[in-house]
Amino acid sequence: MIEPACAMLGIDLGGTNIKAVWTDAEGNVVRRETRHTGDCDGTAVWMDEIWALSQSSAPRIGIAAPGLATKDGRAIAFMPGRLRGLEGLDWSAYLGRKASVLNDAHAALLGEVWQGAARGRCHVVMLTLGTGVGGAVLINGRLLRGAIGRAGHLGHISLNAAGAPDITGTPGSLEDAIGECTVQRRTGFASTKELVQAVRAGSSEAHRDWNESVQVLAAAITSLINAFDPEVVLLGGGITAAGEALFSPLHAHLDSMEWRPAGHRVPVVRAQLGEWAGAYGAAFHGAESDLLGHNASPQA
Known about the structure:
The protein is an alpha/beta fold. It has two domains: 8-108 and 275-291, 2-Layer Sandwich (Nucleotidyltransferase, domain 5), CATH 3.30.420; 121-271, ATPase, nucleotide binding domain (Nucleotidyltransferase, domain 5). The protein contains ten helices and twelve strands.
């Protein structure tokens, strides 16, 4: 079998699955593949899986993973608690070829700006709503990384100084207000999907709990708009599968909260690339030196 010609390979390492996408230089998909991470028993099966995926003819490789990436983009410097073996792993040395590494939420934003809902934009805020709440920020066409790569952890902004501390010690965080990780404690439902189903079925208690979480999300978005003045706010992650059950009350809350000078309203929209955004962003990041200047792409 002749392998289709491709310019870039992006690999997104998640806690459950590894997603790989091969693209040409314009971002058109040549091939994509999903493999199981295999981290449940503490063995790093994912290392072998990524090594195998990297043995394609793609000349450029990018890897997205949870945690804080090193400044030189060769490894994840800090990722405690899971994916044992990830911290400090030099991917270029392991794979025997140059690989560019970045945080998975940062990668998702780059993917959306390159080929998704924020294509060509220069000022973007993205929130990923899932088990936790991640995020990333693009300012003047550049990914905001910060001093140690921590920038964009928008799930850990505080919206209630008197609230309980989250996993980072932040009181009353956005992540604890809407993340899947706390839904049972907050609402009694086993998942956000079950909570939203109850809302749609007319449960007043479910509606109250869901509305409280969406109201906090709206307050967070309002604050982020004031802080970063984006052209668009993107929402990604599994919780956005709620569709209008999320976006309708969210927009209603934003109508009463958002500062709109001269009537200027910032669009808050669902990300387009779904679960593949991180892989797209990793592919772009792996080849950014070739792409910058040739199209309206983010300058990470």
